[in-house]
Amino acid sequence: MEDYLSDIISSLSFQEMKILAILSEKESDAPFKAISRQELMHESELSVSVFQKYLERLEVTKTIEVLKDGKKHRIYISKYGKLALNNL
């Protein structure tokens, strides 16, 4: 499991780590602390298409969790995302 996590962490791009750092700085680390997709995109200063690409990858690697409520999406950093930031 540690090898898998190490592989995931080493494959994250600078921009993906930036997204994780934003979530960490905002202390968005639990469902009740999740921030909106729009707020996160604004903070990341990425275009919609690039942001969506990174967000999908972070969700697949389980470094973020996305709470979906209809069209509203709220996002928080997962325990694996925290590990990724701590292993820089």
Helix and strand arrangement:
Elements: H1 2-11, H2 14-25, E1 35-36, H3 37-44, H4 48-60, E2 64-69, E3 72-77, H5 79-86
Antiparallel strand pairs: 1-3, 2-3
Helix pairs in contact: 1-5, 2-5
Explain this structure:
The chain is an alpha+beta fold and 88 residues long. The protein has a single domain, classed as Orthogonal Bundle (Arc Repressor Mutant, subunit A). Helices cover 58% and strands 16% of the residues. The protein has a 3-stranded antiparallel beta sheet. Helix 1 (2-11) crosses helix 5 (79-86) and helix 2 (14-25) packs across helix 5 (79-86). The chain is globular, with a radius of gyration of 12 Å.
The geometry reads as: globular
Number of helices: 5
Binned, the helix content reads 55-70%
Name the strands of the widest sheet in spatial order: 1-3-2
Unreliable residue runs: none
Instruction: Quickly give the CATH architecture.
Output: Orthogonal Bundle
Radius of gyration: 12 Å
Mean of all residue-level pLDDT scores: 92
Instruction: Give the beta-strand count.
Output: 3
Q: Please indicate the percent range of residues in DSSP E strands (runs of 2 or more).
A: 15-25%
- Largest sheet report: 3 strands, antiparallel
CATH class: Mainly Alpha
Instruction: State the CATH superfamily name.
Output: Winged helix-like DNA-binding domain superfamily/Winged helix DNA-binding domain
Distance between the termini: 18 Å
Q: What is the CATH topology classification name? A: Arc Repressor Mutant, subunit A
How many domains would you count in the coordinates?
Answer: 1
